[in-house]
Specification:
Largest sheet: 12 strands, mixed
Number of strands: 12
Distance between the termini: 33 Å
Strand content: 35-45%
Length: 220
């Protein structure tokens, strides 16, 4: 079992943080399409490079083939996106946690599709986190969850991903809630923040998108 796998997609490079700060010997790295090129630019050897590679030029493609431990090309016309192929590859290692980089920004259809890929991972019991320069995003199922204060991402928003989220309670937040009803489309829980070192959120049913973020003026 691989405890942690990081996947880098082909989203705009400006949104991707310094990947070396996330690199350690126990983490497996997968480059999806242009994400493999990004890994090379961050001096990280891809354990797997996968996709149709229609977003890289021939010179980059040859370097990706040479450096990658495994190289798995696919045709341009296929049923899955390159990111979904990479996630399916990651699941072969039965990971506890998947980190996604390079999956936000640019085309909104790609960003929305990438967010939706979190849902089947949640159902499989695999924690998955989307990370970029400004945001950290996860899905949460019903139950009680604890958040620790993070100076890098001071804002916390909760968005319903189902038609409703019931009995939402926030403790340790600037704007607390007690057994609130959150229908799909509600902005009630946008831009909250922790007032203690830890806080909890709990709900009885539904799925929440938990977004931790910062303003661009605070970008490191």
């Amino acid at each position: 079992m691989a405890k942690s796998i990081a996947i880098v997609g082909g989203g705009p490079k400006a949104y991707i943080p310094d990947l070396k700060s996330f690199d350690h010997e126990e983490r497996i790295w997968i480059g999806a399409d242009q994400g493999a090129e990004v890994l090379l630019e961050h001096d990280i050897c891809p354990d797997v490079s996968i996709g149709d590679f229609d977003s890289v030029d021939q010179a980059s493609l040859e370097k990706i083939k040479e450096i990658s431990i495994q190289f798995k090309p696919y045709p341009n016309e296929k049923d899955e996106t390159d990111l979904e192929l990479a996630i399916n590859q990651a699941l072969n290692w039965n990971p506890e946690h998947i980190l996604l980089f390079g999956v936000t920004g640019g085309r909104i259809d790609h960003s929305m599709a990438n967010l939706q890929l979190l849902y089947p991972l949640l159902k499989k019991g695999v924690r998955c986190t989307i990370r970029d320069h400004q945001n950290q995003v996860e899905l949460a199922a019903e139950g009680e969850h604890t958040l620790k204060a993070d100076n890098e991402f001071p804002y916390v928003s909760f968005l319903p991903m189902t038609l409703e989220v019931t009995d939402l309670t926030l403790q340790g937040f600037y704007y607390p809630l007690q057994n609130a009803y959150l229908p799909y489309g509600s902005t009630l829980c946008v831009s909250n923040c922790l007032i203690h070192n830890t806080g909890t959120f709990s709900f009885r049913s539904g799925i929440l998108l938990v977004i931790r973020s910062k303003d661009l003026t605070n970008r490191g």
